[in-house]
Fold:
Amino acid sequence: MRIGHGYDVHRLVPDRALILGGVQVPFEKGLLGHSDADVLTHALMDALLGAAGMGDIGKAFPDNDPAYAGISSLILLDRVMEKLVTAGLRVGNADLTVLAQRPKLAEFLPQMREKLAPRLGIPQERLNIKATTEEGLGFTGSGEGIAAHAVVLLEEN
Ligand code: MG
Structure:
């Protein structure tokens, strides 16, 4: 078995859609980034690549490459999974945490699970997604940005 950790942050800005775990969440701001800036899926990809010993998403999908401008992070996740499958690895389970003061995310977590679990090749009960605030503290607390952590376990075929 191999364990991996991922962490990511994106800034909240006006006039952008807020995409988290592949789900568009209604909010007055969205995350700024070269792709769709899906911070949760980015943390997940970094955890997967980390566990596989394959570096990080910045190396896999450079943010100066126009091919990735505005791209859905779910497509990037599919590419990460292709690399893992090719390397003889499969996901055991994953545990994700989003840190956001606003908006309230609880009602959207089941949809995120539905979107992400099949892409990871696991049943939904092996993908846990949590959301928390940081009690008004720091950059997530002030609403400047949203952060996400991910931990995954990979198994060798
Ligand atoms: Mg990112």
